Structure formats: C-alpha cells, structure tokens
Amino acid sequence: MTNRKEPFNDVTEHMSKIEGAPMIKPEMGSLPLGIRIIGYVIIGFTALMFLFSIVFGFFD
C-alpha cells in the first residue's frame, strides 16, 4: 500500500507532472542526515524559545 494521494483536480496533477512537485510530504526518516539535523535543531530551538517565553513571562 502506498502513501500517494490522488490529485485534487487536473491543475494539481498537471503541476505535479510538469514541476515535479511531490503530492505527499516526505517522511523525516527518508531525508538526508544533514537536513534531518537542521530540522531537529530548528524545531528544538522553537520549542525551547516557546518554553522560555512562558517561564520568564511569569517572572515579569
């Protein structure tokens, strides 16, 4: 069973064929290691900044 979505209409199918745009989001495990590390760093940094803003918001 594949994880491929059917096109929404003819326009999206055409754009997918012409531009090569994927119809599905890539799984994090299938990406190259460097891109995965960058993704994890960005997500981790965003989560830490969110937590810091909540914690230090109470001290204000």
Please, could you describe this protein's structure?
The chain contains 2 helices and no strands. With 60 residues, the protein is mainly alpha-helical. The protein has one domain (10-58). The mean pLDDT is 81.
Kindly summarize this structure in a few lines:
The chain has 60 residues and is an all-alpha fold. The protein has 2 helices and no strands.
Number of domains: 1
Instruction: Give the biggest sheet.
Output: none
> What is the end-to-end distance?
53 Å
- Rg of Cα set: 19 Å
Question: How many separate helices?
Answer: 2
The share of residues in helices is 55-70%
Q: What is the count of β-strands?
A: 0
Q: Could you report the average pLDDT, rounded to the nearest whole number?
A: 81
Q: Which word captures the global form?
A: elongated
User: What series of H and E elements makes up the topology?
Assistant: HH
Strand-pairing-aware structural class: mainly alpha
Beta-strand content? under 5%
Could you name the ranges where pLDDT drops below 50 across 5 or more consecutive residues?
none
